[in-house]
């Protein structure tokens, strides 16, 4: 029996229309050392969603661009997976809202997954499983986040990192970017290393005055992202290279067989550290975040699309996708061009 190839047949994205540059941040916060922040983050500017623009709005634009480039693609969609940690409402889900905006048929299943920087590998892994189980033939995977809404404006450790964006991908029977294999991991006991404490059902009330400085003089607020950056980085420096080595070994491959590594664009520091842990040359690890920052769940698909537009990939290239972040969670996907 011929093995069916399931792949990413098309990708598009949309960056939030406003831009916040490092010069802007320096004007707002003269005490911040933005030269050092730029060196560590690898970011000079980032797209920011203005007031009134939500993850749903960004995702609608991403899907619209995808549909324009691929006429008729939405007519064949029979499942919609929406990945976000900044939904428009507590309920209903953004997948339901986008389903309505796109006028998709009632037979289309639609659901959200609440993942961040590992969300794209998770979503395309789920999409592939839906197709293999014959529950779907063509899956629309959407990622969208407005993390800028979760950041305290005076938190110098987090604010220079994140941007707002959305992506849309079609997963189907395809030999374009073939999804060869995938693996996932979770370290729930370390969840507090990246957390927003308030806003859920455990701590529903927000308190704008509940702000303090930690031992490194960083602003901390339970209403906003609290990230143990070095703790998260040290953990992923161990598990991500192991996850990559394991998936390659299962497919009888080695690091040298991989043409490119498209890892979550967490920061320049994080990617440099992971590259050294993997022992691969710098040209194999794609870093493309100078004007986007960390786009959370949209990080990997945006880099993939921009790399394809530049003509970087050629037929036969093997690419590792690696997402890691909130949860703590991680996902590794092996694809072939």
Overview of the molecule:
The protein is α+β, with helices and mostly antiparallel strands. It folds into two domains: 6-175, Peroxisomal Thiolase, Chain A, domain 1, CATH 3.40.47; 181-336, Peroxisomal Thiolase, Chain A, domain 1 (3-Layer(aba) Sandwich). It contains eight helices and 15 strands. It has helices at residues 22-28, 34-41, 55-69, 94-101, 119-132, 229-250, 268-278, 299-309; strands at residues 6-15, 18-21, 45-48, 79-83, 109-113, 138-145, 165-173, 177-186, 194-195, 212-213, 219-220, 226-227, 260-263, 318-325, 329-336. Helix 3 packs across helix 4 and helix 6 (229-250) runs parallel beside helix 7 (268-278). The longest helix is centred in the C-terminal third of the chain and has 22 residues, at 229-250.
Tags for this model:
Peroxisomal Thiolase, Chain A, domain 1, globular, two-stranded antiparallel ribbon, alpha+beta, single chain, 337 residues, 8 helices, nine-stranded mixed sheet
What is this entry, summarized?
By secondary structure, this protein is of the alpha+beta class.
Give the topology string: H per helix, E per strand. EEHHEHEHEHEEEEEEEHEHHEE
Using the coordinates above, name the CATH class of the largest domain.
Alpha Beta
Q: Overall 3D geometry?
A: globular
Sheet bearing the most strands, described? Answer: 9 strands, mixed
Average pLDDT rating: 93
How much helix, percentage-wise, in residues? Answer: 25-40%
Provide the domain count: 2
Strand content: 15-25%
So, the CATH homologous superfamily of the largest domain? Thiolase/Chalcone synthase
């Amino acid at each position: 029996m011929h093995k069916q190839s399931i792949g990413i047949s098309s990708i598009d994205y949309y960056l939030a229309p406003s831009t916040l540059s490092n010069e802007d941040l320096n004007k707002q916060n003269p005490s911040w050392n933005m030269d050092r922040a730029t060196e560590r983050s690898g970011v000079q500017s980032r797209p920011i969603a203005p007031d009134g623009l939500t993850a749903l709005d960004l995702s609608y634009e991403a899907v619209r661009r995808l549909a324009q480039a691929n006429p008729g693609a939405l007519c064949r969609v029979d499942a919609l997976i929406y990945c976000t940690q900044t939904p428009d409402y507590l309920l209903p889900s953004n997948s339901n809202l986008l389903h309505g905006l796109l006028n998709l048929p009632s037979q289309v299943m639609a659901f959200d997954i609440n993942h961040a920087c590992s969300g794209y590998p998770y979503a395309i892994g789920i999409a592939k499983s839906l197709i293999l189980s014959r529950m779907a033939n063509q899956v629309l995977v959407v990622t969208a986040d407005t993390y800028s809404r979760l950041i305290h404006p005076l938190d110098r450790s987090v604010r220079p990192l994140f941007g707002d964006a959305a992506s849309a991908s079609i997963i189907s029977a395809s030999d374009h970017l073939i999804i060869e294999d995938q693996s996932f991991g979770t370290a729930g006991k370390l969840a507090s290393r990246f957390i927003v404490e308030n806003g859920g059902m455990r701590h529903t009330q927000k308190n704008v005055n509940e702000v303090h400085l930690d031992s490194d003089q960083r602003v901390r607020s339970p209403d906003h992202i609290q990230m143990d950056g070095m703790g998260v980085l040290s953990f992923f420096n161990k598990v991500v290279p192991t996850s990559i080595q394991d998936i390659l070994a299962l497919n009888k491959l080695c690091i040298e067989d991989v043409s490119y590594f498209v890892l979550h664009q967490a920061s320049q520091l994080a990617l440099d550290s992971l590259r050294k842990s993997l022992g691969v040359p710098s040209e194999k690890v794609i870093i493309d975040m100078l004007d986007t920052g960390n786009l959370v769940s949209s990080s990997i698909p945006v880099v993939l699309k921009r790399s394809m537009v530049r003509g970087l990939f050629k037929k036969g290239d093997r690419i590792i996708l690696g997402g890691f972040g909130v949860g703590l969670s991680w996902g590794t996907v092996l694809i072939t061009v």
